[in-house]
Amino acid sequence: MISLWRDMNRRGQVVLVVAVLAMLLAPVVATRYLLSVLTLILYFVYVGQAWNLMMGYAGQLSLGHALYVGLGGYVAAGLWVHFGIGPWLGVIPAVAIAAAFGAFIGWLAFRFGIEGVYFSLLTIAFAEFTRIGFDHIGPLGGAGGLFIPYQESRLGEWWNLRGGQLFFYYLAFVLAGAAVLLTAWLARSRLGHQWMAIREDETAARALGIDVFRAKMKAVLISSAMTAVGGVFYAFYYNNLFPAQVFEMSRSIELILGPIVGGLGTVFGPVIGAFVLTPLGELLIAVTDKAGLNAPGAKAIFFGLVLMIIIYLVPGGVWPWLSRRLGLVRRRS
Amino acid sequence: MTALLQVSGVGKRFRGLVAVDRVSFTVAAGEIFAVIGPNGAGKTTLFNMIAGVLKPNQGSIAFRGERIDGLTPDAVCRRGVARTFQIVRPFPALTVEDNVVIGALLHRTDMEAARRHARDVLATLDLHDKRDIVASSLTLPDRKRLELARALATDPKLLLLDEVMAGLRPTETDRMVDILRRINREMGTTILLIEHVMRAVMALAGHMLVLHHGAPIAQGKPEEVVRDAKVISSYLGAEAAP
User: Transmembrane segments in this chain: where (chain A) (predicted)?
Assistant: First the structure.
């Protein structure tokens, strides 16, 4: 964490402090709608960062991260709805189950040499059949969805994540901040270097004594566990879960766009990516509504076009370009 | 001197084709040992068996008295055998220093210690000035030295070098010879090299083994080996005869 600070020059440090202060003070001026957009951004910073650890650093392309969001959300919500077990406690089994799924997928893939696109296909497959499975789990609402009942009396019980918009905003802020710090620490750690070595050249990594299987397993475990926490947040923020929505492939894609656009394998890429894409999505909804373009898919087409333009203009991601442009990062000496 | 590496009757077949045929040799601690032979002689197959990439069909390989044949490449490296690749494989998007830090982290958990060690190794290999450059923008001679630096950073007892001279100009070859000699003398690292460039082999090796069609045809001190009739006809060419 200290090294994250040290690697920035004075200008970078000032920008970071101002940005953090602005986020902390945003609720003072922001409208409820703006606050909900900011909450969503921070949520995507968090889950994007979790995915970034696995893809950006360890080089393992998961296209099924919605699996861990869904599992985390369903486990915690199910425990709350049926047994009254609060999410602060429920997050533990939620993380454990998601990590167990991650471990199984990882073991299957890395033990039997399922690599590259085939690994990605495997992650999609798991998310898809988990979605179908959840359609048939009666106690969790099946295809009809699981709802966390709205109880007036419980409002304000922050220890049960029964807060208002402001509460969830700060919770998302803490999660996103923690994810950034964790990534910064990991990126400079021994494990982080092993991941980057594997990402760059697995054969060479192995020749340097790196236990590739173990390092990859750690990546999946950490990433799936982190993502599951995001799922718990999601469940208690929206109060409803539908298998067709949470496990949907488009959810996995939505989650990875931020880090890709922002800059893979960078600490601030997922942050910048979420701050670019989420408002863009909101803006497009507003614009297409105003223009009367209510044709289905209109938003998706515009979104896709903008994505193509961004990726064309800054292929390495917005953050590496931006930090160079604004001179925010110190050249290591 | 004691045997650091003992290769005993090692053989490898690929679908009936005998790539390496019952090769035996011993590398003593502290020496530089060379394996030479024409293309297709089985040098790289032999190399890959020692490095853990291939499992021999017969025979055994012992390192410091412990069998290492059949171990995975990472396990072999952790026991103190580091290798370079004939076609260099740097981590392209990482800086020169980070490339070497990854090697240094094998036996170090502290990042600062690893970084210090990496910088020492880079200084030994004249790469210190280039430590902040990403590996993909290095020239071939620099990449070859980076490959060596990375392997060296793992603190190996035995360094396996797969044609480190290939593609280098004569002056660069001399520089590499000089570096290898320094590594051998100053760090006490034993070196096993597979090499085509006879000039370098003659300058470095204390002992050498000549492979032809997978089988050893001569073994001994370089000055003896180059006078061997079989070696001259199969490898060095008839005109090299005195």
Answer: 40-59, 66-85, 91-110, 167-187, 219-237, 257-280, 300-322
